[in-house]
Amino acid sequence: MGQYIPSTWEWVADQVEIYEGSGGTEGTNLRDTDLPVIIVTNTGHKTGAIRKTPLMKVVDGDRYILIASKGGRPLNPHWYHNLKADPNVEIRDKTEVCSMKVREIEDEEERQRLWELGVEAYPPYQDYQDKTERVIPVFVAEAV
Known about the structure:
By secondary structure, the chain is α+β, with helices and mostly antiparallel strands. The protein has helices at about 10-20, 80-85, 110-120, 125-130; strands at about 35-45, 50-55, 60, 65, 90-95, 95-105, 140-144.
């Protein structure tokens, strides 16, 4: 892996810095909410750099569900393309760090079930889907 390049979105870079700088004891919720987030570390598909993204914590048993919403914008987030190019990630959930492998959910029934878990954990996901024409991708991350 290359060197770490922080997000150009200041709040994302700040969240990662607080979360990781504290060893997972601070910055573990989305901004000014009580909603938990995880940090997904992946490899940039163009740069080969290490990228880190805070995502809503959505679980299905011992698996993490990653929702590529980008707030309902028309295009997928950059990290979506990173995961498609290299499915090996590291997930930090507070003080626990695990190597995982992701796969995009293609089966509609499985995607719908996992999507509903996502909306339950973070209701704005449904608003994001309603305002975009793209089907928001859903990934599952499983231990290697």
